[in-house]
Please model this.
Amino acid sequence: MKKKNKVLLIGWDAADWKIIDKLMENGLMPTMKKFVDSGVRGKLATLDPPLSPMLWTSMATGVRPYRHGVLGFVEPDGKGGVRAVSSHYRKVKAIWNMMTMEGYKSNIIGWWPSNPVESINGCMVSNLFQQEKKGKETVEINEWEMPEGTVYPERIKDRLKELRVHPAEITGNLIMPFVPQALTLDKKEDKRLTVISKFLAHASSIHAACTELMETEEWDFTAVYHDAIDHFSHAFMKYNPPQMVGLDDEAFALFKDVVIGAYIFHDMMLDRLLKMIEDDTTVVLVSDHGFHSGHLRPTHVPAVPSGPAIEHAPYGVFIARGPGIKKGESIYGASILDVTPTILSLFDLPIGRDMDGKPLVDIYDHPRTISYIDSWENVDKPGGELVEVKEVYEDTNEAALQQLVDLGYIDDVKLNDSSEENEIYLKGIIRENNFYLAKSYSSFGKYEESLEILLEIENKKKPDFRYLIEIIECSIKTKRFKLADEYLQFSRKGSSLSEVYMDILEAKIQIGLNNPDRALNLLKKAKASNPDNSQILFELGRLLNSLLETKSARKCFKKVVENDPENAHAFQGIGLSYLREEKYEKALDNFLNATERLYYFPIAHFHLGETLALMKEYEHAIQTFELVATMTPELPKIYRWLADLYDIIGNQEKAEYFKKVLKPLDLGERVIITGMPSDKLIGILEKLTVDGVKIDGNLSDLFGSEISVIETNWLSKYKEKIIFLPLNFIASLNDIYSYRFIYVLDNIHNVTQQTNKKMKIKSSTYNKDLMEAFEKQERVAKIWLGQQPNLDIVYINSIDDLDKDIVKKFLI
Amino acid sequence: MGSKKSSKESSAAVIIMNGKPFEVPPGGTLGILALGNVGIRAWKKASMNWKEKETKEAGNEEKK
Model:
């Protein structure tokens, strides 16, 4: 086997670009600055739920939590008890197993979760190695043992044991950089100083183990994980400048430097690591999520399991530096799922086709050949087994659980209570982990699977607002509006959720039920009491956009952007509002803003492609649609655009190719007859019927009052190929079909007069509101039709037009 | 980089930082912790030496 360059992977839980960029700018993270400048940087999208053990396991396996099996912070121990999340539940190979299979030597230090360690080719130090507690009590230094299963192989145990730092060893000297006035506080009494000692001791122990193994062991791959930035941020971000409303001045003055101190310390540790390696070692630094700072900090943390995760921001950091990697550039669209495939590509090892992530090929300064295998699970080579632990240290487990309680991630552990209470606690843990499993499914669009689990674990006698929200959201996504409404009414009765949040959910249900006015009223009501709430503004903006109230929609989205300039979804909303107004330049700017902030955003790329096509920038539009096709290959609309665009630029070969791609996805063509609700339309429909043309749909229902678009695939019920559809419904047409339109034109005055007559109002009455409504309906329809790919339309002015060849051709 | 004994005082822990010898204070520094294995070994040694020295001095005081 030809040896490849070494790879050092550094994991900093919760490291956030906003803080890092500011510190680099102020010269406070000089090593990081040099490191970033000499490599590529990017944002790493996290997964939902953003819980670290699940995320770091996805990072180390390349698959989503519902596949890797590590769920939450604690797990059943198989003996009726619970234990801190461990390696036992991981169902797939981790990167260190793959490296072992291929003969590479690894050092894996502190990865969460990695206890017990595995017999890999190399050394492994688990996330419990630095644990200094015995149950709830802190162990004295001279009695501090290292439990079985925390280190592999045994021969390195003594060396690493002496390198651990106990929190009691952390002196005032070491605390002062974090809290300059620490001496004014009592270290033993002030819990905030105690936790700084603990976080610092843990980080130092992990760093010492890492440097020791890097220096003394032969290795190809070293991966080290630090949880300190996450822990420091959860405990002290509320003290970070600017001072939060309600925080007392004294506490602010004392602890305002703690988070910054934590980052600076990590910069110093990074400096040491970078000085230890050879020039041709590739270094990758990642975090699993970011951390809200500034005005995005939540004002309170919900008192529920994993409540502190509300402080996590959706993007972590990604930096890579090494031979063959670009310098000083940014990459886009990276996710934590991409870390393992990228590490494999650095070693020229194949990527499993069953992995959810992809290799980040944009980091390379020249094209790189990527190879694939079906799955690493099928590779029949030893990759390391879990080390057998003969004596389970209950105290170590309790200590690990207690740490999670201290961090607010789980409820207080009741392991010593009666067996009945123990059982209730265990059931609660299983239920909670199933909730995370459901969330993992729904965050990947698997709403059916998620809903099935949620309905199983939900208990109306003991409602949990998180479960209720998820059930309602999944019911809406799967168009089970009745079920969504049932749970919403239940939530309203029990006041499980805030009034405003319930209004938002009800608005979503009403949109699904095609009651936009009711939805609008609910959102406006919610906005009136919370004018700056980004969630309300966002939902309102979306609804207004779909109602073609584009200016009002834009106002909402712009306010969201004011609150959070990184909100890609709000930029997408602004772009869409301009696209609907046919202001393509402005639409383009905003779609670019959206995709720059969130690269893996297929719908924003799709609208970007549409905008470019409508601006006649055909080549760029083609590139954009081809990119969308790699993100969501199942959407026929993309291939329709591509076939159309290649046709326009005269590349018949490609146009034919995309037509072929489209064929199996295309569920057939429908001919739609539509137009303003007038006598002319009725006359034309009658004439066609008399002529023997079979038209589906209710021909006397000109306003569509009997149509229910909420039924899944409502259009597929129309078996015949020619359908009458009222004009106000055309934007609901599903894009899985192709369409040919016969559009009956009429004068708005005629339409209004005839409608007045039907409403038994004098036909000549000037009905301003009705006229405006018709005008708007027609405008909306025409814009929508104009923006659809590969859509053929023929306009009819009179009954005589039915004899024209083109119309006859449409009706065949 | 590595730990070695100072030529002036055998009980002190000295390491080479940025090419220059640096005597590790018994209270440690963040820079020493950030050195990892090398720094922690030197700091633990400095701390132990200081404690021994303190104990010895306290013993001498008692004798006086």
